[in-house]
Amino acid sequence: MPSARTRKLIEMDKRHVWHPFTQMKDWLADPEPLVIEKGRGAELVDTDGRRYLDGISSLWVTVHGHRKAEIGRAIRAQLGRVEHSTLLGLANVPSIELAAELVKIAPKGLTKVFYSDSGSTAVEIALKMAFQYWQNRGQQRRRFVTLKEGYHGDTIGSVSLGGIDLFHQVYRPLLFETERVEAPYCYRCPLGLRHPSCGIACLDSLETILKEKSGEIAAVVMEPLMQGAAGMISAPPGHLKRVRELTRRAGVLLVADEVATGFGRTGQMFACQREGVVPDLMAVAKGLSGGVLPLAATLVSEEVYRGFLFPYSDQKTFFHGHTYTGNPLACAAALANLRLFRKEKTLARLRPKIRALRRGLESLRGLRHVGDIRQQGFMAGIELVRDKATREEYPWEEAVGVKVCRRARDKGVLLRPLGAVVVLMPPLGIRMDQLQRLLRVTRDSIEEVTEEP
Predict the structure, then answer these.
(1) Which residues contact residue 227 at a Cβ distance below 8 angstroms, ignoring those fewer than 6 apart?
(2) I need a surface site. Which of 161, 180, 312, 343 has the fewest CB within 10 A?
(3) Do the beta carbons of residue 115 and residue 296 sit within 8 Å?
């Protein structure tokens, strides 16, 4: 039974707060929604003192863990200097230092940093830059190519790039059209291939579009290696590299949406580095500040940047910005986050955890209702099916993913469903014993929910 304080907070929440990606009718009917008050490491604590393992990094953002002391100290130190100063016509120290650090760790060739405050805005900036780059060069390239099932954020331009009807269909009248090519969803391959090369073969449609319409296309926009919100759709080796080859050959820009895959999630600092790919523009967010403050950035090649260098009178400036662009507090947090990657050797220490996650996930393949398991580094999705032999999907109304995650919550583990796909994306700093618990509870929750009569 929730305490009197918790009941009061829940009452206030239901009266005033509209939650994202949440059917509020269900939320209002829930007698015990979770109210988080504290956190430490890989754990969160609710208002009644119950502890939960954060199996989704608080929506894929927490890197080293909650309340990491070094990040907190950096923020407090910056508060003693200045909390905010605009980048419109001015510069500030943390944003300068962070830009230099980002260029050092990014794929070589990305030399400029444009700040914003979320993954959606970072992608929105990239598409506007790509569009205006060609305009500035006197070319009317108005089209973008995206992968089916892509997700790039919730602002109008980013939604236009998206391909998840559940999220985006209602807004179609507001959006611009894009060219959509097959995603490397090998488990449910629409081409009927279903073999290791299908993720490469599905790029035939991209090659055709680029051959026929290259003079109309501003950029190809994609999530490298893993399409997150689509249900953790994992690209096979060589897919990303092949996209880069095709775009270079066609003279089309490549935008890498590394909002979810960046900052160690795939085992490399950035997913593009796995296949030695350098995009023309790259959007980052989520883990940039260590999961502490809203901060995003769009990294740009020197060639694209120089496409905006004209006399003031030509009016070819990139007229875009946000009030809190390059906020000093957020940039200070991000600098501390990157220092921790070096100090704690985060990526090296992550490798045995990735192997342990892979072993644990493989042990789930024998479950009767686990259809497919997809993993890239510390990102994983478990697709549940009604019938394993036919790959028959669970009906949406059965909400099997929601039920599994609710059962896990009852066991003290927080997971997140994407339809019938259960997502695991723990903080990189999770302890090995906590990771084993995460896997154990996930297994038990899937078995209990899917085997119920």
Answers:
(1) 147, 149, 150, 151, 183, 233, 235
(2) 312
(3) yes
CA distance 330 to 82: 12
Fold of 71-343: Aspartate Aminotransferase; domain 2 (3.40.640)
Which of the 8 DSSP states describes residue 106?
S
Q: How far apart are CA 244 and CA 369, in angstroms?
A: 37
Nearest by Cα to 261 from 279, 247, 249: 279
Count Cβ neighbours within 10 Å for each residue of 328-363 and write b for 16 or more, e otherwise.
bbbbbbbbbbbebbeeeebbeebeebbeebeebbee
- pLDDT of the residue at 120: 97
At 416, which amino acid appears?
R
| CA–CA–CA angle 308, 313, 319 (5° rounding) | 45
The pLDDT confidence band at residue 93, using thresholds 50, 70 and 90, is: very high
Give the predicted TM-score (pTM) of the model: 0.96
Please list the residue range(s) of the chain that carry CATH number 3.90.1150.10. Answer: 34-64+345-450
Give the rounded distance of the alpha carbon of 137 from its chain centre.
32
